[in-house]
Design goal:
globular, eight-stranded antiparallel beta sheet, 8 strands, 9 helices, 19% helix, alpha+beta
Amino acid sequence: MRTSRSIPEAGIGRRSFVSGLIGAGVAVPLAAGSLTTDPVEAHTLASADESYSFHGMHQQGILNAPAPRAAFVSFDATAVGRQELAELFRAITERARFLTRGGLPAASGISGPPTDSGVLGPEVVPDGLRVTASVGASLFDDRYGLAMARPKRLRVMEDFADDALRRDTCDGDILLQISANHSDTVTHALRDIARATRGGMQVRWRSDGFVSPPRPSGTPRNLMGFKDGSANPDVRNVGEMRDLVWAKTDGSEPAWAAGGSYHVVRLIRMLVEFWDRVALREQENMIGRTRDTGAPLSGTRETDAPDYSNDPNGESIALGSHIRLANPRTAKTAAQRMLRRAYNYDSGMDSNGNLDMGLIFTTFNQDLERQFVTVQKRLAEEALADYISPYGGGYFFALPGVRNESDWFARALLS
């Protein structure tokens, strides 16, 4: 049986996070059978007691397989001065630490508001919650004296060919990627953190996503019906993660960034009503994979590597297909591979009555320029571009992990 402990209450209001956090999380033992920091690419449903270790060199929510539900919430920092910014990150840390463990909220006073929204019932369950905190280029302006500490490649996301970016849904000072097994857990965590940080940051944009269960097996599918992420690097390969995901430690990045990663988010609308009128064979040629199995058009299984060497003219897999452009599988492009995370979104209808749905494309890179930007430029004017419309997102830097109970997000950056 899981043990639970209450958390203390504090006030809220403009700058209230400076004088007191809303309930600092108290450590509770992880549930029996809970997950450790060892990530595995697995897509399975888990119980409400599923818990991920909050502390470590790297944050959760990066190497882990995507959770079934997620919210990407970008904030503008409104904290005044560096000290208030530090208090803001302490507040985010304390709430995330408690929420990912679970426990009993503190009892409210006779006349005070409840210390918890009650969305999850009387006891907060971890439910596989992960809170991944990243920072945008705008945080390194002159407000907080951080200009010299900006990660080398971090900048405002540029417009690529075929983009239709709406700047009100781009970038931001702080990004929280909140993911869990169920939507109510994500909603609960967002409300809790927003309450604890009132006066310190304000929502800029938000996009909610979900991951479909494998159908019938293997990698989950996107809303175009194709499996998404089949050729990801192996997250269990420490060497690959060191070379492709985690920030360099050779002096080319600020020392504080060790353990972090460039975090790219792209909000991509899929023109599904147009796509659904395209012949299946044409769809498969644009992607480079069969829709049913996810196998490359030169193979029979999803896990088969595309055989480009025996297909130099693109007779099996077109030279302009998405998978061939994204990953040509040459010695020169091997270092351009990215750890990709795909979430579907469904926002109902637009003002013209068209279906508004698509992809929250997410990737973690060691080097933003070498990996994401290079690949994105290579995809310019691909055939698939007629059926998608990137409109938002941004470049961020996922902060190093919180090492222990006394550590907090961005401590090395702000100390």
